[in-house]
Structure formats: structure tokens, C-alpha cells
Amino acid sequence: MRTDWIHEYTIEQLRLRILRGGGGITTYFRVLADASQAWVVLILSGLAVGFIAAAIDIAGNWLADVKTGVCTTSFYLNHSFCCWGLQSTEQCKDWVTWGHLLHVGPAGGVYVVQYLIFILFSVTFALSACFLVLQYAPYARQSGIPEIKTVLGGFVIRRFMGGWTLLIKSLGLCLSVASGLWLGKEGPLVHVACSCANILMKPFHSISQNEARKREILSAAAAAGISVAFGSPIGGVLFSLEQVSYYFPDKTMWQSFVCAMVAAVTLQFMNPFRTEKLVMYQVIFTRGWHDFELIPFCVLGIMGGLYGGLFIKVNIFIASLRRKTWVKSFPVLEVFVVALASALINYPNVFMRVQVSELVANLFQECSATNDDILDICQDGKTAGPVSLLILASVLGMILASFTFGLQIPAGILLPSMGIGALYGRAMGMVVQVWQRNNPTAWMLRSCEPDVQCITPGVYAIVGAASAVGGVTRMTVSIVVIMFELTGALTYVLPIMVAVLISKWVGDAFDRKGIYEAWINFQEYPFLDNREEPVPDLLVSQVMTRLEDTVMIEAIGHTIASLDDLLHTQPYKGFPVVADARDALLLGYISRTELRYAIDKARNLPRTTECHFGGSSLIGAVSENSLDMRPWMDHTPMTLPARSSLMLATSLFQDLGLRYLLFQYHGQLQGLMTKKDAWFILNSVKDEKRFVHATRDRFAGDVNSTNVISSS
Ligand SMILES: Nc1ncnc2c1ncn2[C@@H]1O[C@H](COP(=O)(O)OP(=O)(O)OP(=O)(O)O)[C@@H](O)[C@H]1O
């Protein structure tokens, strides 16, 4: 089922007119109470999202640390809380690794025991997440952003944002994040946020029963998801605008802003990391950047675009293999194999053993005496080893992430991409640093002061991370804002912008679709992208459902029984109303839902009661007892001449959010087309063979474009 925005907004306006009709103080308060409903939902959603995100952070971090050891004083504390207040040089006695707890000495192979326990926990967590998803809420799998985009684009996916999905996605996220697989919780948190809003709006019928208003709230909730995921409220609003929302009026911008802010404040108040800060990976750089560094920053942009383009191709290739082969029937086995392989590969490499969030936080840091160097990347004179390990980790990370994104577990792609970009970025930074140290007199380096450190590899990690996310998602403004809200590194906005821009260009050279659009395409969701490639040069008359195939309702001559029969025998979502079938003079359109409602309302009348749909020429032709169906009809449906171009029709679907269009010539109906028809045609023409089928099926009146999205 699709949303007809124009129709929904008309209903809303009618509702408001009735509400404001009375006058007096009671009406004033009624209007006030009605207007505040959306804000109540938004604020409650913000609070809920902040709370859930904090809970996922705490539980996920604890489970992740359990893979290596346990806190002997209080088992429920993670490593950093267990060793709270200790300097990095001091030994933390309360945190004990499993090897020590089991009294395995170095000779007894403590490394092997630790390794095995790490694998055991990783695989168990991943399998538990998979089990929860498959057993209780299949829609809790993956990131959910492609589906949210589709829903906000006007289609309905039932149970996608229900209570079970929310519960399982939250629990599953703790487990999947803790498993150490190459995935992130950031995208899925958008789904969590939308589910919260969807549940909280249920008691408010004026919102939950109006698909257009519902989508405004969901767009705002999506902003809250990113706000808590990255501690980035403004980035969240922009993410919602740039990536997930289809229709984003000023009102939604303001609502998103409020929802994102409430969620961020709640998260800060919950303070899950005990840092008292919203900025998650705060970096303090003591140096600015130099002009010559723009060259490596551009190279990082190119690398980001290459990574993004390649990642999408590989990931979709793996997904189609999964769909075509026996693997499809064994999702648990697949999760087991990927989790086992990830744990086996992750443990020996220090960059991969830590959680991706911790990796990113450390790679962003400047080397200084006050920062812990847990990854061993700040040793002077030791570059070749760490650089090769960094590059190895980024390649392996990319391979593992492309298998992981698509598994039946809650999993996002934003953080792994950030991690991969930070790895190659830091490697590049270290190489440039060595080159600068070895060539201090080079002409290009004249802006570097002698004997003072000139290059900051941490900045390269940030720029690399931004370029990788840009390459994968093809977002621009929101990534830049997220990056500086995430790190507080406002000084580096320009390099980040340059890298993101280049990565988008390079990525677009592969394919204009980002990872989410690629998945929408892969899943064949009926999403009419308003950034889609040019529409084929066709006339609507070539592709519409023609008059001879259209089931119409004549203005007179129907009874309640015949209309009821029509609803039982015809599956269509609506019917054009014409004066008579012969010359098909168009009077309006009645949707299936309205017709059903009108018939149900008249259930006390005899089934033989006549019904009429109006038309001035019919005065006198209908009996007095005839049931007037005019209030349920749309008297001014959107129409176009049948000789209009497909491009015009498509842009009306995209920009006005229409569900259907009728085509007429001098007032006579010629045919019709639905939004899903337009989506189907646009997708079919990319493949000429499918197009032949599409048009042939169309004229046979049997278009079944997708079975993924349920119809109502
Ligand atoms: N009254 C009608 N008579 C004949 N064909 C119709 C009529 N209404 C729609 N169609 C055609 O039938 C197909 C299904 O249309 P329908 O209105 O049921 O929904 P949809 O939005 O296109 O798809 P879905 O039902 O899968 O959500 C489309 O190809 C459309 O052009």
C-alpha cells in the first residue's frame, strides 16, 4: 500500500477545519491539545531513544569486554568501569583475563586459551542475535535504513516498526555489537528510534491514522537515532534530510531538531561512558593543517570513493549469491561461519581485536604523553610494522564487513566504514609523517616549522573515516557535520569536506547508488527515488493501464450489493467514477478504503438500495432513497492528458507524493497509472528484456511488481 500525501493532507485539513469550527475557549483548548500531540510524541520518542541507546551502550560494552575477561569485584562492570580512575601505566588488579582465572600459565598456552574463549563468546553472541531475529522479529535484521527510506517514500511495510521489532532489535544489537563482527549499531539505532516513535504515536489517532503525519514524525525520529548514535544532533537532522526522508518540509526540520536534541540530552544525562560529554571521540589537536596536506587528503577522498564503490559491488554480489544458493536456507550456519572467521581473524591483529568504536576513537587521537597508546601506533621510529598492520586490518575489515552486512542480525555499515577509513587514513598519515621527517627541507614542506611536529596522523584518520562513509553512503553535508560533532575537530572541516566531495565523485563513477539505495534495488522495494537517473522518453499512453482494461464505476445503476461484489471481485486500490461506461466522462475517483467504509456504514440499509455518485446531468435520474456516495469520492483527482510524458507523470509522483494519476482527453478518461507502476517501469527499462515483459504484463492488466511489500 502506498501513501497518497495529497489525499492524506486533505483529510488532515478537513479534520482541522472541523476541530476549529466551534469557537470559544473550549475550542481553543481542544486545538491546543491537538497541536501539542505531535510534540508529546516527539519528546517522548527522544527520551525513549536516548534511554535505549544508553542501555545498548552499557550492555554492549560489557558483553564485548566479557570476551576477554571479567571484573572480579563486580562481574557486571566492563573493563573501563572496573579499572576506573587508574592510570594507564598502573596495573588493574580487579580485571582478570579468562586465562588467569582458569590458572593457565604462559607455558600452558594462555594465548591459545584466551583466543579460544574469545572465539567462543563471539560466536555465541552472534548466534544468539541471529536466533532472536529469526525466531521473533525478522524485520529486526540488518540496519533497517533501506526499509525506512521505502516507508518514508510512501509505502507500507507491516510490522516493520512494531513492539517486537523494537525489543529484538535492541537486544540483538547488544549481542551483535559485542560479538566483534564488523558491524555498527548506528544505522540500526535509526530503526530503533522510528520504532519508538511509531509505538508512542499509537494512542494519538489523529497522527497514527494519517499516513502523511505519521511520516513527518518518523522523519524526525530518524534524526534522533543518528543523534544518539554519534552524539550528533545536528548531523542527525541533516542525515534525516539527506539520507532517509523523502519529504522534508520546514516543519519536519524543526520537529527533527527537537527530537534529536531531546534524545541527545537524555543520552548525556544517562552518561553511559561516564565521560560527562556528548562528543564521543573527542580529539584535541594542538596543530592545524598545512596547504600541502590537501594532496594526501584528496588521495584519501579517492580511496574513500574506491572503497565505497567496491564495497557496494562486493556486498551486493555476496547478497545475490546468498539468495541464489543453498546458503539462503541456512542463515544460522552462515552467521556461525562469518562470526567464526571474524573472531579467528580479529584476535591476532590488535587493530581488529578491539571493538570498532574503540578502534576509531584511538585512531583519531593525536600521539601525546597524556593519551593511551593501546594500539601501539605512537612509537617513534616504528612505522613500517604498524602501517602494514593498519593496511592489512583495513583490507580484512572490508572483506569481513561485506560478508556481515546482509546477515540475519541487526547490523549497520556506518561505523565499520568509519573504522576501515580511519585505518587506511592513519596509515597514510604515518607515511606522510615519515616522509616529512626524512625530507624536512623539501619545498612543499616550507610551512612546517623546524624541530616541531608538523603532521598529525590522527587528522588523516578522521578524514579517511569521513571519506569511507561518504563513499559507501554518498552522503555529503551530514557526514561532515557528524564528523565534527563526533570529534569536536572543527578546524578540520575543510579537509573533511574536500575528501567527502571527492569520494562521492569517485563513488558515483562506479554507480550513483549508495549502499542503502543499492539494497533497496536489490530487495526490489518499490521506492521511487527522486534522485533517480533520467526517466525514459516515453508517453504515458504507452505505459498506462488503458481504458479498456480499467474497472470503472458508473455514476448510477449500482446497488450496495453490486458495489460490495465489485470490492470482492476486483483487487484494485481504487476506481475512477465515470458518467457512463460508453463515453467515460470522468467524474472523480473513489478509493477502495472509502468505498468499503461507505458500504459498511450503510449496513442497516437493504442491499438492493441504489447508490449514486453524482454528476449534474443525473439530477432526476436517481430515486430519493438512493444512497449518496459523493462524500466519499475525490471529485478533483489529479489528471493529465494521455499524451503527457512519462517524465512529467513521474515527477508528479515524486514531488507531490501522489498514489495514482488519471489520464483524460477533453474530460474523457483514457487510462490510469499508479506510483508503483511508475516505479516498476523505471526499474524495468534498465533491463530491456524486463521492460518488454513489463509492458506486455501491463496491457494484460497483471502487474505484480513486488511481493515484499504487503498490500492492504
Ligand atoms: N480500477 C482499476 N482498473 C484496472 N486496473 C487498475 C485499476 N486501478 C489500478 N489498476 C492497475 O492495477 C495495478 C494495481 O493497482 P492498485 O491500485 O491495486 O495498486 P498499486 O499501488 O499499483 O500496487 P499494489 O496493489 O501492489 O500495492 C496497477 O498496474 C494499476 O495500473
TrEMBL record:
GO terms for molecular function: voltage-gated chloride channel activity. InterPro entries: CBS_dom_sf, Cl-channel_core, ClC. Gene3D superfamilies: 3.10.580.20, Clc chloride channel (1.10.3080.10). The keyword Iron does not apply. SUPFAM superfamilies: CBS-domain pair, Clc chloride channel. Its main location: membrane. It is found in: Membrane. The chain crosses the membrane at residues 38-56, 115-139, 217-241, 253-273, 294-318, 330-347, 387-407, 413-435, 455-473, 479-502. Keywords: Chloride, Ion transport, Membrane, Transmembrane, Transmembrane helix, Transport. CDD domains: ClC_3_like. The keyword Ion transport applies. It is a multi-pass membrane protein. One of its GO terms (cellular component) is early endosome. This is Chloride channel protein. It comes from Arthrobotrys musiformis. The lineage of its organism: Eukaryota, Fungi, Dikarya, Ascomycota, Pezizomycotina.
